[in-house]
Amino acid sequence: MNLDYVNPFVVSTHTVFETMLQCELTRGKLSLCDRFQSQHEISGVIGLSGPKGSGTVVLSLNSNVAICATGVLMAMEKDTVDEDVVDAIGELTNMVAGAAKSELEFLSMSLSLPTVIMGKDMMVGFDKKIQPLVIPFDCKWGELSLEIGMAINEALVNA
Fold this sequence. Notes:
Chemotaxis protein chec; globular
């Protein structure tokens, strides 16, 4: 996968967490995976599609990160995962993907509505032709990761 398509997602994740949540992220070592099992308990999943390619982006957070992020977004104390947390993670996923999409306008991709799945080791299906890239992060609340799998038709991009 071309890192030019990945970097906007990494930058947008940093930006969303720093500006919206006042939470600095530290990126870990990137890795490839053959199939995706969510790294953490709560994952926001959003699809990208267009004439030049398609893909899936997963923002996976441990429960504490999800609860703390929701507390900041809603300006209220949260101590358990509830429907507010699910809604907030869907919105965070949408913000990350939306900001990255604006940097990838040349791909003419549309975003799906985000879906939030709960449960560690839940499977997210990627196209068989795609090998997802996993980007782990640490923050003051715990761990999260960004998983990106994209299939881009380079001939159409360079046309």
